[in-house]
Structures are given as structure tokens and as C-alpha cells.
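pasting input
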Amino acid sequence: MIEQNLSLLLVVIPLLAAPVTAMLPAGRLPWLLTLIVTWTCLVIAGWQLSVVIDGSVISYELGGWAPPWGIEYRIDAMNAFVALILSGIAAITLPYALRTVEKDIPRHQTSFFYALFLLCLVGLLGIAQTGDVFNLFVFLEISSLSSYVLIAMGVQRRALTAAFQYLIMGTIGATFLLIGIGLVYAETGTLNMVDLNLRLHPILDHRTVHTGFAFIVVGIALKLALFPLHLWLPNAYKYAPSVISVFLAATATKVAVYIMLRMVFGVFSNDFVRITPTDHMFLLLGVFGVILASVAAIYQTDVKRLLAYSSVAQVSYMVLGMGLASVLGITATLVHVFNHALMKGALFMACGALVYRVGSSQFDNLNGLGRQMPWTFSAIFIAGLSLIGIPGTAGFISKWYFMLAALEQQSWLIALVILLGSLLAVVYMWKIVEVMFLRPASDTVASVKEAPVSLLIPMWVLVIANIYFGFNTELTVNVADSAAKLLGVAAYHE
Amino acid sequence: MIDIIVGHYNYWVVIFLMMAGFYTVIDRGNLIKKIAGLSIFQTSVFLLYISIGYVSEGTTPIIAEGLTRYSNPLPHVLILTAIVVGVSTTALGLALIVRIKEAYGTIEEDEIHDQDESL
């Protein structure tokens, strides 16, 4: 019986904790409550995944209204997998948050900061849990609105303009999604995802459905920072407080990838992808995204911006996987969602450690810092190897599956682009190594100490996870594979 | 043809508002005007939903004697939620503009851009 309620608890617990956190006195107490909540969520998400991993489905009817009339939380392997990634990253970010937030956020704002962090988590988890498209829009806006505020809490004043730009772009994206949902609702009269899938099937050639689909895809693509709609992302990640860069880089775009998968394949079905040029469009944007965003990353002179452009490139890989529209392609996308959360989490944590000690992530201020901060530097190095996709790291597993998916369809061009993206990743990660290790240390750097242990431990947990999931692929690949099959993509090539 | 134009007049209003709002967001450099445009853009979607829910010769969706044909209440409920979202977005956007004005002394996009470049 309790298993039934897990799906709702995962949303309700952080939602109730958020206002409580806001009312707590400033200081460490809000942090402690948030820590407890995130770890509770992690336990519930793990439990939830263990229930549905065998292919069963948890269905929870909100308020006792039976679907398709009421809102349904419908948990299958894919939702549970995404929820686990989200709560896992939140749980590992929180120990890291304590010291950096004390430095970045004025003391009297800490209660609100953690309350907003929880709200953002509620939104993201809600997106993962819900089986209702309008409910998904509401959760998307909850997470977006709280992340605008969190970004605006950055130290420099440019955080404000970055947050404003994100607000404009994000709201346009969400409104496009809303228009799309409205048009699809007008055609079908339902908002439940499973029901939508059934009712859309006979009318997939209607023009309203096509228009709705276009609005939905463009709306999600804005949230996803899919090239060329990625313009808000680099500044938002750069000027946000360190811990928010870590959290958003590891979760926000991944959730958008999940929404895209769920809407395109779960609601509209691969039949629809087949009769429209959707797959070709994804492949085209993915190819351009991987190459151009990687090249843009090479020209950055700031570690955070470099990593942000690298995120755009990595998201493009996931879109490539969707464009291949096969079980292998979707598996690769989901595996990469997980692995990329690990590597970008570790890299942004290391970057936050640099900012913590030096106060800047500009290359000019980091010369020779690798010797002063050996643990942080080796974390960047190993996570960088994972980003490139060196065997023995989690990144290799993702690249391997992308290659398999491309070769399965004899798409040599796509395979080439995947390799090229890795080569470009070598170039931009090498720039960081060069600056931090090969350049002579300036005088100001000589007195810099290694980052505090409370920053190093979460960072290294993620680094070790990068290596662990490079060898043990059972969890990631099995779950991703069964999730991909659930979407019914298998029928595509018959 | 005339039927399509006249019979769907509310949808034409929706499209006009949507484009006007969207254009304002893209074209205007003044941050307040951008938020105003964004609000108009969102409002047009509210009208779209309400239009979808309309049933010809339908009345208000309440249970009463003699009322059998009524509009679909679900889009109304959805839009109540979307209005809340829209209001919070506008409020947050305006709050950010206040902070930007305090930090930069201007709310013109190009002037803000110039100040950041000169840093």
C-alpha cells in the first residue's frame, strides 16, 4: 500500500518543507532541514525505482479522481530513473552547499535560498512524476520561477540580467508548451498522457495536432537549451551562485530532455515521428549543436562559461539519440542523461571550489592553480576524461551507446560527429589543464589553499561515481533500456 | 470564406494579441515593455483556452433548473492556474527590473549591455 503513495510523497515532502524552511531562522537550520528532505527524497526515489524496475507501473490518482479525468501520477522505469537522478544530485549537492552558500548568499537570505532550492526540486521531481500534461506545465513553471530567483541571487550584478534573460526565454518556452497542450486538448479532450496517446493515434494527420506538436517541441527545446535556442544558458550558469550552477547544470536540462522524450515518443508515438520530419530535425539540430557548441566552448576564457557551452554540446548528443529514434538511441540518451549529470556535477563543483578560493573562474586568475589545489584539479581532470569519453569512465559508456545506435542505422555521418565532438572536448578540457597546470603560477595564486573538505567530499563522490559507472553499467544501461522499450520505440524499424 | 473569418473572430483576436505580444518581447529594448509584451503574449493563450472551451449556445457551467447545455469548465480551471503562473512571472520579472535599475541605473537593454562591456 505504501508503495502506491511513494509517487506523491516524493513531491509532497519537499513541497511542505519549502515554506517551513522559509520560516526558519537564518543560519544553518534551513540547510539542515533541506539536507534531511533531500536525503529522504533520495531514499523514496530509490525505493520507487526498485518497485517499478521489473516493468510494473505505479499509478496514483490525486484526490481519488480516476484518470483520465483526474490527475494521475504514473511511475514507470523512466520516471523513476529520472526522479532518482534528480534526488541523487540534490542530496549530493546539499553537503557542498553549506560552505559555498555561506560565502555567496547574505546570511539573512539563507532561509529563502533553501526554500527556493526545495521549490525548484519540487518542480523538477513533479515533472518526472506526473502523468498529466497540464500538471507538467505547472511543475515546469514552479521549477523555472524558482530557478530564475536562484540565479538572480548570484554575487555579481550581471546575475540579474542573466536571470531576466532566462525569465523571458523560459516564459516564452513555457507559453509555447501551453499553446501546444491547448491545441492538442482541443483535438482530444484529454490531458492524461496515456489517454492522449490512445486518442491521438487515429488523428495523427490532423493539422491542429501537427501545429500543437510544433509548439510543444519548440517550447521544450527552449527549456532544453537545444541549439540554436541555447542563448540564455551560458550566462545563467556563469553568474548563478556556485551551488546553483552545480544543481541546474546537473538536473534542469536533463529534465527537459525527459519531457521531450515523454512528449514526443510517449504522447505522440514514433508513428508520428515517422510521418513528420521530426527525426531528421533532431538529427540536424543535434549535429550542429554538438559541433558549434563545442567550438564555442574552445573560445571561452572562463571555466564556467566553457562548461556551460560544453553542456549545450552534451545536450545535443541527447537530441541526436532521440533523432535516431531507435531503442538503442533512446537508451544512449537516457544513459547520457545519467552520466552527464555525474560529470557536469563534478566539474561544476570543482569550478565552484575554484571560485570559493580565488573568487573568479576567469582563466587569467587561475594560472598554475593546479599545484595549489591538487584535489580539485585532479577532479577536473578525471571528470574531464569522462566528458571526453575515455574508456574506464562513465562518459565512455554513453559515447559507446551513441556509436552503437548510429552504426545500427549505418549513419556514418552521425558516428563521425560523435567522434568529432569527443575530439573537440579534448581541446577545450585541455585548455583548462593548460591554464591550471602548465602555466607558471602568479604571485597571487601562491597563497591559495586547497578547497575545504566539505567541498571536496561531494566532488569526489561524483568523480568516483564517474569511474564506478564506467565499469558497472548494470544499473544505468538496464534501466535506460527498459525505459526506452516502454516508450514503444521498438516498432519504429519494423 | 466569410464564415471562416467571422465565425472564428475570437481566434483572430488571439492570433493578433499573440503576435503583438511576441513582437514586443523581441523588438523592444525597454525591460518594462518586454514584460508587458510577455503578459500580452500569455494573455492571448488564456483567450485561446477559453475559446476552446466554448460550446455554442452553452451557458455557464453551473447546475441549475433548465440548464442542460453548458460550456466545458475544464479549460476555465486550467486557465485559472495559468493566470496564477502568469501573474507570478510578471511580478518576478518586474521585481528583477527593480533590482536591475538599482544595480545599473537604467532599464534600457542596450545601455545595460554597454555598461557590462566596459567593465
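fyi Confidence is low (pLDDT under 50) at residues 490-494 of chain A.
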